[in-house]
Design a protein that fits this description.
- The protein is mainly alpha-helical.
- The protein has helices spanning 2-28, 35-42, 46-52, 56-65, 70-81, 86-103, 105-116, 125-152, 161-181, 188-203, 216-220.
- The protein starts with a helix and ends with a helix.
């Protein structure tokens, strides 16, 4: 019983430290936040930090691992959908990602930190690599889906598949980052659907290429 209680207390301390890091990173930036400040915010000692984490980068990565960020969640949701229409799968994944961002405060806070509040200095190299790995995986998934949809629709993409996929990723990530600057400026999910469909049209996919586009007139009328 004592051992279990000790383990539970250690886990609770770890979560308090990560909660404190999230709040401080968002409020003042990663580079301006010290380990001592995190410990004080969490009501813990500096020694407690080093018991659970190697350094600030380790804290940052642990903070990231507690949530599934939108552009990581999207491809997972699309893969789980098992839809035969690759464009509908991408749209379902994108809508899931944008909805997650709009409705989950912790996901929104961590994404804000990861995109706006961190500097990729030498001691944060592992953080940069994590960001790159997630981006590359997402772009790869987009490229596979776009190429498959083009083959099935007998469509020749106007740009190479990897360029089309990078553009789509930039569109979605850019939309999220701009929404974070002012969440009242526009409806993230609705704007995401509309810009996604315009982007597909620019690649040559027709009005009936994806199930989502069939509802375009209805949504635009809202």
């Amino acid at each position: 019983m004592v051992a279990r209680r000790t383990k539970e207390e250690a886990l609770a301390t770890r979560h308090r430290l990560l909660d404190a890091a999230e709040l401080l990173f968002q409020a003042q930036g990663v580079s301006q936040t010290s380990l001592q400040q995190i410990a004080q915010q969490a009501g813990a000692t500096r020694g407690a930090i080093y018991w659970h984490f190697k350094d600030k980068a380790d804290i940052f990565n642990a903070m990231m691992e507690r949530v599934i960020l939108p552009l990581e969640a999207g491809p997972r949701a699309a893969a789980a959908a098992g839809n035969d229409d690759p464009l509908a799968e991408i749209e379902a994944g994108m809508v899931h990602a944008l909805t997650l961002m709009a409705t989950d405060p912790q996901v929104r806070r961590v994404f804000d930190v990861a995109t706006h509040k961190v500097e990729y200095t030498h001691d944060m190299a592992s953080v940069q690599q994590r960001h790159l790995d997630a981006r590359n995986a997402c772009v790869t998934d987009f490229e596979k889906a776009l190429r498959l949809a083009a083959r099935r629709g007998n469509i020749k993409l106007p740009v190479p598949g990897h360029v089309a996929a990078q553009g789509l990723h930039a569109l979605i990530s850019g939309l999220i980052q701009n929404w974070l600057l002012d969440p009242t400026a526009f409806d993230l999910v609705l704007s995401g659907r509309r810009t996604f469909r315009v982007y597909l049209a620019g690649l040559g996919f027709g009005r009936n290429s994806t199930a989502g586009i069939r509802n375009e007139a209805e949504e635009i009328a809202v």
